Amino acid sequence: xxxxxxxxxxxxxxxxxxxxxxxxxxNGIAADSMTTTSIGGVVNLSCHGANVGLTxxxxxxxxxxxxxxxxxxxxxxxxxxxxxxxxxxxxxxALEYERVVDLLANVAAGRIDLKIMRxxxxxxxxTSLEYNIPPLWVESDHRHNHGEMNGQAPSASxxxxxxxxMPRRAMSLANDGRPGSPLARRSxxxxxxxxxxxxxxxxxxxxxxxxxxxxxxxxHCQGSIMYPLGAEVKRLPGESRSKDDVIxxxxxxxxxxxxxxxxxxxxxxxxxxxxxxxxxxxxEVVAEVxxxxxxxxxxxxxxxxxxxxxxNSPRCIGRIQWNKLxxxxxxxxxxxxxxxxxxxxxxxxxxxGGNIRSAITVFPQRTSKRDDFRIWSPQYFRYAGYKMEDxxxxxxxxxxxxxxxxxxxxxxxxxxxxxxxxxxxxIQAPRxxxxxxxxxxxxxxVEVWHPQYPFMKDLGLKWYGLPAVxxxxxxxxxxxxxxxPFNGWYMAPEVAARNFGDTYRFNMLEPVAKGMGLDTSSLSxxxxxxxxxxxxxxxxxxxxxxxxxxxxxxxxxxxxxxxxEKEVSLRGGCPADWVWxxxxxxxxxxxxxxxxxxxxxxxxxxxxxxxxxxxxxxxDKQAKKQKKRGIKTxxxxxxVVMMSMQLFQHQLMKRVRVTILYATETGKSERYAxxxxxxxxxxxxxxxxxxxxYTFSDIEYEQLLLTVTSTFGNGDPPDNxxxxxxxxxxxxxxxxxxxxxxxxxxxxxxxLAMSSKHYQGNRDDSQPLxxxxxxxxxxxxxxxxxxxxxxxxxxxxxxxxxxxRVYEKGEGDELCGQEESFRKWVTGCYEAACxxxxxxxxxxxxxxxxxxxxxxxxxxxxxxxxxxxxxxxxDLCKNLSDLHKKNVYPCRMLSRTNLQNEESPRxxxxxxxxxxxxxxxxxxxxxxxAIFPQNQPSLVNQLIKHLIDATPPDxxxxxxxxxxxxxxxWKPFExxxxxxxxxxxxQQYLDITTPPAPQFLAILATLTADPKEKEKLLxxxxxTTAYEDWKFDKCPNMVExxxxxxxxxxxxxxxxxxxxxxxxxxxxxxxxxxxxGGEIHCTVAVVSFRTQGGSGSLHHGxxxxxxxxxxxxxxxPCFVRKASSFYLPESKKSPVLMVxxxxxxxxxxxxxxxxxxxxxxxxxxxxxxxxxxxxEDQEGPMWGDMALFFGCRHPKLDHIYKKDMEELVNExxxxxxxxxxxxxxxxxxxxxxxxxxxxxxxxxxKLRKENGHFYVCGDVSMAADVGKTLEVIFEQHGGMSSTExxxxxxxxxxxxxxxxDIFGVTLRTAEVTDRVRNAAKKAWKIIADASGQEEVSxxxxxxxxxxxxxKLMGLERGxxxxxxxxxxxxxxxxxxxxxxxxxxxxPSSESNGSDGKRSxxxxxxxxxxxxxxxxxxxLSSQS
Length: 1423
Fold this sequence. Notes:
Layout: H1 8-27, E1 29-31, E2 37-39, E3 42-47, E4 50-57, E5 60-68, E6 83-87, E7 90-91, H2 97-105, E8 112-117, H3 182-185, E9 189-192, E10 199-202, H4 204-207, E11 211-212, H5 243-262, H6 268-292, H7 299-311, E12 326-329, H8 336-351, E13 359-362, E14 374-375, E15 385-387, E16 393-395, H9 400-408, E17 425-428, E18 435-437, E19 445-447, H10 455-458, E20 462-464, E21 468-469, E22 473-476, E23 479-481, E24 486-487, E25 490-491, H11 492-500, H12 509-516, H13 527-545, E26 550-551, H14 553-571, H15 578-581, E27 601-602, E28 605-607, H16 612-615, H17 620-627, H18 630-655, E29 657-663, H19 668-680, E30 685-690, E31 704-710, H20 722-732, H21 748-755, E32 773-780, H22 789-800, E33 804-805, E34 810-813, H23 818-836, H24 849-852, E35 862-866, H25 876-884, E36 889-898, E37 908-914, E38 928-931, H26 937-946, E39 957-962, E40 970-972, H27 982-989, H28 998-1004, H29 1011-1020, H30 1025-1034, H31 1038-1044, H32 1052-1058, E41 1065-1068, H33 1073-1076, E42 1079-1085, E43 1088-1090, E44 1098-1101, H34 1102-1109, E45 1115-1121, E46 1136-1139, ...
Parallel strand pairs: 12-13, 25-26, 29-30, 29-31, 31-32, 32-33, 32-34, 46-49, 46-51, 49-50, 51-52
Antiparallel strand pairs: 1-8, 2-3, 3-4, 4-5, 5-6, 6-7, 6-8, 9-10, 11-27, 13-24, 14-17, 15-16, 17-18, 19-20, 21-24, 22-23, 22-28, 35-39, 36-37, 36-45, 37-42, 38-41, 38-45, 39-40, 43-44, 44-53, 47-48
Helix pairs in contact: 5-6, 11-13, 12-13, 19-23, 20-22, 21-22, 26-27, 28-29, 37-39, 38-39, 39-40, 41-42
């Protein structure tokens, strides 16, 4: 549609306004008010007969209202929308709001000089008006509208002089870019692919502030010119941009940077916080620019800018890799020596033995106070070009001039010159002579040969593998970095067609054609084409055979098309120069040839700049002055150079950042993480962070990320690792847009997605963590089938997101070899990291780092005293919440009932607590209740007696530590709650029953005077097999440790400062909230057993024994943890088959209560709490069968909930109940597996034909046997082979129809303990000896140890759940130390791992996954 002509009257009026503006704005506006007021954020002042209101908008003060104060009316000098730039010479953007108000309120009487930025009136959309605005920034409302003013920006040269911001002009995108043209008006351009007929729309060029003028104008296009006129930056060293130009570009860049951060979060609070950060950052930048004329980017901004500059490069076909660019920040260097070391480091890193890695090294920016850092060489590697006496060229004709310059600087070519003589890199630091850097020891060269034409090898062709451009300038945020060398990798035609084939380069087409026997007499024979193709084949083949990264032009073109489509989808466009994108070989055979492209220029960018030797200032005078200093000065200088090189190498090591993340419940992973930090701190800048405290948006900027984590339950993350795991998963698998603001997807899906046989973790080309190096260590117990699940999931996800694994993940089995596995991993990881980052460090120098890292406690650094003064009264649950960083709520003990017969030697109790209307304790069937117990009072009293300086046990204590060297800088050690007494600390908050860790034993070794006891403690502190044998055999609590090593003199401060915290215990909830109301029921087996094969001391479970002795109305601190996938099915018609021997029946009690209340009310109770009525006229049965398979020892002594089961069968709630008794004197032994086989046909029908769900709750050995039994049922009643049956069970798990609530092995006797540990030892040894052996779980150990006469407990035959065992399983997860997972000593629950065999979350419901299974039961002792 043609443009409407501009109205002459409009133009005349605009010119008149502009003339008035020139006169008034240029001299400033005098405000005649002596007083100002600030009301509600509005500053009011009197100006030329008008009351003017100013309001802070981001970093600017805008005029928002003008009211006449006299008959003179409004002033023509100010308008609504104008921006106050300066007040009496002070920049308002650089000041805080209150400072501007004070400035306006306290100016001298008579005059306020305001420098404003004019609000240009809007022109009609179809009208083109060129406003001749003075050099001031125009901040007008139409700036973001799509019209002829849209997308205006300063020119590429940065605005030059003038001191002001030029008005934004419509960008020339093609030949017809003159104002008023259709292209100037349109905010989009459609691009057609002539091969596929598809069209895409580019709107990016018109929407962002960072689009700048191209070098074309309405009369001609320079798109085909190598160095377009105006493209080269010819600013002299020391000459910088104007302040306004810097601020303008900084604002555009920072806006884009913070916008990228906002896109990563769907939280409105996070976005608001980012907006505040952006405004604050912009104020800081403006203030710094006003003061210094420039500013500095922080490291994250620099990394973002460098990647974005590559992304914006219109001439690069390989931009799909932009997010993988490694950025080396070398802005700190100050000399040529440091510059040389950085370049050598860049080459080593990027070359990487042939597996080329994209990288950029950014040297200091241009400032007005010094000369530039420059690299004279166009590329790191260039071959010399010699002009011979006969006029011919030997070598590369393109480098003849530069070769002469390098020779003039002192380079001596080899006596026998060749075609491929490598020249040194020429670099120059400010105030220094050009420096020659010999990199012949770093170059990776590839000899070119052809698989079918042997003669090509005789041509002697070769080329370097690393293409690194070193003479371009990095332009970002108004800052210029003249020395910013960067590299990618080669596309084959770049070497073959351009370097070898071009006539003005090596010109090898004719020699190749003649070697091939082609007819070169006529161009029509196409000998050039044939030779060029075979030369490309030779280059591609040679690089591939040498294992050096290279890409063919067809693959490169295809990847660019993917990049183009993705960029249009993500950003609305992609700047692309068709002339450069189309490969120089077989152009029309590539998809890019047929794709229309739009070429425009965006910042950040890489800019051409004038050759360094052309702008080089004379340094002869400086050289003469240096000569006068004499030989002595030179010797001193040489020493300084050597010292500076050594210091710089050390500085480079320190500059590599390492972030160590940990996730833990009981603290062991945290201890290991700190041990890692102790070692890595010798060569890296180390930061240790808990996953829940980590800012996830920082992960893309990590250099080295090390993760130490345990696993809970059937593969779930620890509580403080859940959010990190979910964010990592969603980075890999972004949720649909419609789900972004809904409940987050479950963490359990991480394990499923990563371990599924159908999932292919292939790396795509858009991986955001491509620059991150990482390694993972997992803690677990192979007693669980899903060993180290969370650690394995994190390891896989990081790899699939593009991160580079510097060292294979390590796994520590708490049953055997965990300490040794950790030491092997951390030392191997340290050496690999040093090698990856080219850090020369000797591990032997720091070999004692791990053994001394936990000895920070010293007797003279800590002291304990009775707290004086007013002692605060605090609540127990609040204290536990603060201590464990979890919300803990008080429940009230209602009742306790013994479920077993009085004649039974065992005790299983039903505990009922009142949740006291606490909404955060709302739960669903399948969830767990975490209870914080207390230690036995008798054990606490014994421990206090052993302390050498115990304070009165019931007086509040004050723990202090001293960091001062002189011993007088005492500060409170704020670990325990304020006002805590010694008795409360040992009874309620600290763990005194878990065997001490090796690091704690090392401290104890310093507190004994007995040489023998000290020797034994030191041996145990090594964490070797001797320690594990001692720990598993005696399972000593702290009292027993002090009794065994009777010479120990332990101060109170050691226990209060170093004992681990007493952790919560997790119990399957045995009730439905809809059925019992505001109560929670738990089925708890009371744990007690003797150590050392029954001859040792009697141990009691901490939590189970506490619940068994507390009285009614006692406060029970607890919280609810959601299960990951152990829920009733969505469909009420789905059959539910439940297998739970012994206390494994606990969660199923909540299942049948839920079913009973739903059947009584004829409603389905949804997870949201809503009731959905069931249609009476629906087809088929209303409810699917609910069947229970239960097992115990004796029908009269141990059959818990027997009466309930009988009633439920009569009521039709339970369709079937199968009971197996292993100790019934009147029947042969029978286990739940036998019951399942007897009902095989029924089970087959319900699971396969009626799409039922299968639930198993119990210890890991029983669960493994049940799984095998189900496979046998499928074979016998489904006609499947063993392979098909196994695959069917796996598919049920993957589809969320096989659910497990597993809690580890219950160790019953010393013999069983030995079997389990011996099996674990053998498995650990096999794994340690066999490289690459991973993911070995308890069931998988059996075939590995066929030669062993001892078999694994629980794999010979399943148990009913009530065979004699130590302890009795409680479904309370209240299990003895030997059965605990990884994170306490002995094994704590942080071991439950995951190797790909867990239930998938139900798709329809998006519940918060926070399932922690198998909290270990620490044991107390009783004499």
